[in-house]
From TrEMBL:
Residue spans crossing the bilayer: none
UniProt-recorded name of the protein: ABC transporter substrate-binding protein
PANTHER family with a match to the protein in the record: ARGININE-BINDING EXTRACELLULAR PROTEIN ARTP, MEMBRANE-BOUND LYTIC MUREIN TRANSGLYCOSYLASE F
The Solute-binding protein family 3/N-terminal domain, residue ranges: 56-281
InterPro entries, alphabetized: Solute-binding_3/MltF_N (IPR001638)
Source species of the chain: Corynebacterium doosanense CAU 212 = DSM 45436
Phylogenetic lineage: Bacteria, Bacillati, Actinomycetota, Actinomycetes, Mycobacteriales
Record's keyword terms, sorted: Signal
Amino acid sequence: MTRRMLCAAVVASATVMSGCVTNTEDGHPEGWEPILPDTVLEIAAMVPAEAAADGVLTAGTNPPFAPFEFKDSSGAVIGVEMDLGAAIASVMGLKYQPVEQDFALILPSVQAGTVDMGISGFTDTEERRQTFDFVNYMYAGVQWAQQTGDDIDPEQPCGLTVAVQRTTVSDTDDVRPKSAACEESGQDPITVLSYDTSDNAALAVLTGRADALSADSPVTAWAVNRSDDKMELTGGLSMAAPYGFAVNKDSALGPAAAAALQYLIDTGAYRDILAQWGIEDGLIDEAMINEQPVEGLS
């Protein structure tokens, strides 16, 4: 089935997803307003010269991954991570510029210095920490969803067809290891449908191509809330882990961004930004890098 045919099917069954051809949504949540604190000079002074030279904080991102990043009807990249990135940049005395990239190319771009940060729903894992530092801003986990009324158990996945976004933790650390365990026990493996974006993975469930969606918990919740009651959560939260903004290992930009995030936490702007996107769970009260408090911030 082509992408255009998929969208036509979804329009018939779930009009809230009808913008899938252009990967757009209506826009900001009702009542949203920009939160851009003034520059804090002592934090701006922490920004390394190579990042401060042009006055712009560039961040590689891969929409759509709502509510973290997606495009509105005008094509602008919006989302809770975009708001957090813009607020952190503002505290550091910089303008914020998202740079749309394929998800798999973001971390290499950070490493190459073509963008300053990776801000695209990155789970802070031990493997990624070998090369990058992560400025942690919340905790999330893996959550499954199904068509409403189905009886899918994430703990009994053998023989199911499960949709994921390619190279995410749901793909690499959840579904594929479960599939391997099924085969080792002599059962049918999971058929994994890997998509470039999370919205296409959700569409696979809505159109019946997949039995379930596995995605990061805020992403799954967002898809369910916009499915016109045609999808529901199933099973519990698993693999809780920190989310973070990626910078090069041992870069001075990490502590500067952590200091800016701590300022947002202390002033309440952090909680306000997440609340505007309906995120109230998994919040932190202390900025961390690789889950470790940064000395002198709090």
